[in-house]
Design goal:
alpha+beta; five-stranded antiparallel sheet
Length: 465
């Protein structure tokens, strides 16, 4: 049911059972509280319930059920589709829930769902530990994890879900349950890749690994080398050691002192690689990247893991305040025709704020059995995406259209499916089903029927019961 606002009597009945902050359209912070990362999203909920703890989440779920309200669940607010906010109804906002406890002896962390990766990494890095998590430190830990969790450590330590030990979850009927390998094991299977379909995750327990300084290489090439560099990268990536993760990006180059001034702000190619291990081994692993071309410029340096995690936070593709559009594919190998198709789409981009990225997967990701988690397509070697960013709403239509057209042009050269976290709101119907495939969808639908038979949690990458 759509509500522009809830009656005052209803809010008065909720307040005694709610420790956090209730923000309605008359509240002075309403407009700030409804903003999410993707500035294309402009929605007006009837109520934003900023939860201080699990008791508040339980109260908000009961309130929403009593009033037959639509529900959006917000953690970091970084979902491309803007599912952390809604028109009408209630936003159950977990962002105030920042509790975290690191156990350095067991190398685990218990973390509440309102944390961002920047906040979690700050706590774990105090002990020289980390887990795979995102490529932008402003993203929320829960949303990234539930969709799989790609990041700089994924080839060495797997996806975030491969390091997930247990989850606390508030169900649609207002219960708190725990899911792990030993408790509600089928639900635990579905939570590892099935997104926010089965309830509201309030806390996660994650395995940690020794990570302190990492070696990072950034190799810059002019845009006219796009095809040559991409051909090289695909071949090179299949040989890189598992301690190393890498990505290929065409993007407007930053005004770095290492770059010639003529390359500042214009499209170019960046190869980025991270190595978690001895510097002498990193130097050997980076050598082929540094030799190819050669690059127009390079930056090769040790750096704290937290610096790497935040490296792209301020770029338009990662920063808040920009409209964003994303389309992605899994990719096996792109031949000459596919590479030229992508290059032609990039030449037609409406602004320098349009990018193409292809990241190498495999490694520890592919060693987990396809049926062990709900996450699909573990054996596919690459994930590729087009993304456009813009600040002027007048630029939205042409940027979004370019993203969609580029994706369509690439489809004949792509593998099936897409990384679930990057499914946009305006994707074709059936995209979620296509991504998981028939066998996993059958199992996920059965879980949805068991835990959310009325599709109470539907503002997500939805699996209908």
């Amino acid at each position: 049911m759509h509500q522009d606002r809830f009656p005052q009597a209803a809010l008065d009945s909720l307040r005694p059972n709610f420790r956090g902050e209730l923000i309605d359209p008359d509240h002075g912070r309403y407009d700030a509280a409804r903003v999410v990362w993707n500035a294309r999203i402009d929605k007006r909920p009837a109520l934003i319930a900023r939860c201080a703890g699990v008791a508040d989440v339980l109260a908000a779920v009961r309130f929403a059920r009593e009033h037959e309200a639509r529900v959006a669940v917000r953690g970091g607010g970084h979902d491309i589709a803007g599912s952390g906010v809604c028109d009408g109804g209630i936003v159950i906002d977990l962002s105030p829930m920042k509790g975290v406890r690191v156990d350095p002896a067991r190398r685990t962390v218990r973390a509440q769902a309102g944390l961002t990766w920047r906040e979690l990494d700050h706590e774990t890095q105090a002990f020289g530990l980390a887990t795979t998590g995102g490529q932008c430190s402003a993203t929320g830990i829960a949303g990234v994890t539930l969709g799989g969790g790609i990041g700089w450590l994924m080839r060495q330590h797997g996806l975030t879900i491969d390091n997930l030990l247990s989850v606390d979850l508030v169900t649609a009927d207002g219960r708190l349950v725990t899911a792990s390998a030993d408790e509600n094991a089928e639900l635990f299977w579905g939570l590892r890749g099935g997104g926010g379909n089965f309830g509201i995750v309030t806390e996660l327990e994650l395995r940690l690994h020794p990570v302190e300084q990492v070696m990072v290489a950034m190799l810059f090439h002019p845009v006219d080398r796009f095809a040559d560099v991409l051909r090289f990268y695909q071949t090179f990536a299949r040989t890189e050691p598992e301690r190393m993760s890498s990505t290929f990006i065409q993007i407007a180059l930053p005004p770095m002192p290492q770059l010639p001034a003529r390359m500042h702000g214009v499209p170019g190619v960046i190869l980025v690689a991270c190595y978690n291990g001895p510097s002498v081994d990193a130097e050997a692993a980076f050598a082929p990247l540094r030799a190819f071309g050669p690059p127009a410029a390079e930056l090769v340096s040790p750096m704290p893991y937290t610096v790497l995690q935040g490296m792209f936070d301020t770029a338009p593709a990662g920063a808040s305040g920009y409209g964003q559009s994303i389309r992605g594919h899994y990719v096996s190998t792109l031949g000459d025709e596919g590479i030229e198709t992508i290059a032609a789409q990039l030449r037609a981009a409406p602004s320098p704020l349009c990018l193409f990225e292809i990241a190498h997967l495999e490694g520890a990701i592919a060693r987990v059995g396809e049926d062990e988690t709900a996450f699909p397509r573990r054996k596919t070697p690459f994930f590729a995406m087009f993304q456009s960013s813009f600040q002027d709403p007048a630029d939205a239509e042409r940027h979004v259209r370019w993203t969609q057209d580029a994706w369509q042009a690439m489809k004949p050269f792509a593998a099936e499916g897409v990384y679930v976290n990057f499914i946009d709101a305006d994707e074709p119907a059936g995209r979620v089903q296509e991504t998981y495939g028939e066998a996993k969808m059958k199992r996920l639908v059965a879980l949805k029927r068991a835990y959310d038979p009325t599709n109470f949690f539907r503002l997500n990458k939805n699996i209908a019961p």
